[in-house]
Structure formats: C-alpha cells, structure tokens
Design goal:
By secondary structure, this protein is of the alpha/beta class. 43% of the residues lie in helices and 24% in strands. Helix 3 crosses helix 4 and helix 5 runs antiparallel to helix 6. The longest helix is centred in the middle third of the chain and has 16 residues. It comes from Desulfitobacterium dichloroeliminans (strain LMG P-21439 / DCA1).
Length: 284
Amino acid sequence: MRKTAIIMDSTGYLTSDIINDYDIRVVTLNVNIGDETFKEIELSNSDFFSKLKNISGSSTTSQPSVGSFIEAYQKVLADGYEEIISLHLSHKISGTYSSAMMAKDILENENIHIFDSESSALGLGLQTWAVADWSKEGANAQEILTRLPALRSQCELYFIVDTLEYLHRGGRIGGASALFGTLLQIKPILYFNEEGIIDVFEKVRSKNKALQRVYAELERAMSSGKNHRIAVIHVGAPSEAAIMAKELNEKFPGQEIRIFEAGPVIATHVGPGALGLAFHPWPN
C-alpha cells in the first residue's frame, strides 16, 4: 500500500493528540498585529488579544507562502510518503488553497492532491480527522478522495458570535449585516453556505437562544439515526464550551463529542467569546 501523508492548514484546530497520533502535518497561516507578523501556531489566543489591545488598528491574517507548502510537501516525501492529501479552508475566504495548488504545480508531482474543505475551523478539522481515520484503516489516496466530497457535503459548522464587527472589518461579510447585528443587539449564527462563503444563518436575540437553535440543527441531522462526530468550538471561552459539551452529552448520549479551541486566525474574524459547533455522520 502506498503511504499517504495528510496535511492541513492551521485553521483546522485539531488537538495535539489527534495530530500526533495520525502524524498530520500542519502548514500555518499568519496573523499580522500592527507591524508584527506571527505564525498562528506560535500564538495563543490570550497572547493574541493581549497584543491586540496595544495597537490602534485591527489585526489581519495572511495565507501561508507557496514556499511553506513546497517545504512541507518535500519533507513528507523525504520521510517516505508516496501520496499527499492536503486539505484547506475555503478558497472563497483565503488564498491558502491557491498557495497549495501553486506549490503542487511547481513540484510537478501528480501524487499531491489538494482538497478544498469549503469550510474552516472544525469544518476543516473534522474532514481532516476523517481522512486520517480512513488512511489508518487502509484506504489509499484515491479511495479517500472518492469519499471526501460526500463527507464535505455532510459536514456542518455553525458559529455564534457577539457581533459581526470583526468579520465586517476583515471584509468577510457584508456591511448591512454587520450594522443590523450591532444596532439591534442580535447574536448572529454564522455558517458556510453552499458556495463556501461565510454567511448569516440566523439572527437570534440571546446567546442561549442561539445555542438552542444550533442544537436543533444537530438534532435535525441526527434524525437520520446515524451516529455523529461532534466538535464543540470556542474562542477563549473554555467554561462555556464545557457547558455546551455537557448539555450535548445529555441531549445526545453515546455520540463522540470533543472540545476544540479555534486560534488567532479565526479569532481575528469572529472575536473573543465566540462558540461553535461542527458535526458530521460518523463512522462514514
């Protein structure tokens, strides 16, 4: 069997135990704060928000360089892998996918396969985790790539944010929605639409109502009778995430539920205190 390397960008936010157990390689995005640039994997959320207080403007994010991908691909090939599956956040919100494609073109290696998750955070992370499981079970790269589009279509991600201000500042969402959410004190629920773009799923008047609305989406998905892999996501809100996980375990006993923290790239766009939920049927 040809050995398949699995690579994702840093916005997948899988925990270190999963990354290490499956030997998932990570190519990091960058966070720009004032005149300083940091690799996302080197910056905690607490450090990020602390540094953000000391600048007059807002932070921005940037994709990995083409050279970063070339280096990552060459490294895994040198380690004995013969195929590469490289999964990344939606090309509609980042140039990361384009950087990966350019690296593949430069290396002229048909065994490098670039996949657009059409999502981010644990929408990307869960897809990568599934790929790692399939590979561990013995599936080759072509078999995995055949399964991935169906999994992608079943993978759902919802984020509850206090304000759309951060997304508006970063140009990731329309100005009218930002104004509406700010003036009416509405808690927006965000999701990736069918085009792989961040959009407003629904506007709710309290965080608790927003959580119940997201839980209802999970319940709708689980009405199929299939078990699900469920990711609770937070940005600097571990206590609230723990409460979410407890509630979900009570509502949906027997499901695989884990907590993940999204890093500074996502934090730049959703702000502190954001909560999220990602899920898909599993085993698949």
